[in-house]
Design a protein that fits this description.
mainly beta; Elongation Factor Tu (Ef-tu), domain 3; 8-stranded antiparallel sheet; two-stranded antiparallel ribbon; 44% strand
């Protein structure tokens, strides 16, 4: 099936389904905002900085098209997406994998051409992990 932009959840790729899954959005490397707070004070120019170097979780949306899928297969695919606590990998980012807490709620709609379309948002940890170690320490 379609390997281009493939997403892999816990080792199972979107290309492993008996219908075509087209992942429209390319993956990106996102760096979330730090939890440092800038506190405004009327008696000072600028702000008071309350440092916290930890990072927020990341929310990454993808648009998926299920082409040639039956209603039963769409239900199986939605169960595949509803996992919690999984590794998210991509065919486009060969060395990076992300620890996902869960997927956000999503709808799967059928368009006029019998293609199912879904906007799925993955919520993951701000740290990127390498799939393989390269070289020696």
């Amino acid at each position: 099936m379609i390997k281009h932009n493939e997403l892999v959840l816990n080792g199972k790729g979107t290309s492993s389904f008996p219908f075509k899954v087209l992942v429209e959005d390319r993956p990106s490397i996102q760096v979330p905002r730090s939890k440092t707070q800038l506190l405004d004070h009327r008696g000072l120019s600028g702000a008071i900085v309350q440092t916290n170097k930890h990072r927020d979780v990341i929310e990454k949306p993808y648009r998926l098209y299920l082409i040639g899928a039956s209603e039963k297969e769409v239900n199986e695919f939605s169960a595949y997406l509803m996992q919690e606590g999984f590794w998210l990998e991509s065919e486009r980012l060969k060395l990076t994998r992300l620890w996902c807490y869960r997927t956000d709620s999503f709808d799967i709609k059928q368009d006029d051409h019998d293609v199912y379309v879904s906007d799925v948002t993955f919520i993951y940890h701000p740290t990127r992990f390498l799939r393989v170690w390269i070289g020696k320490f």
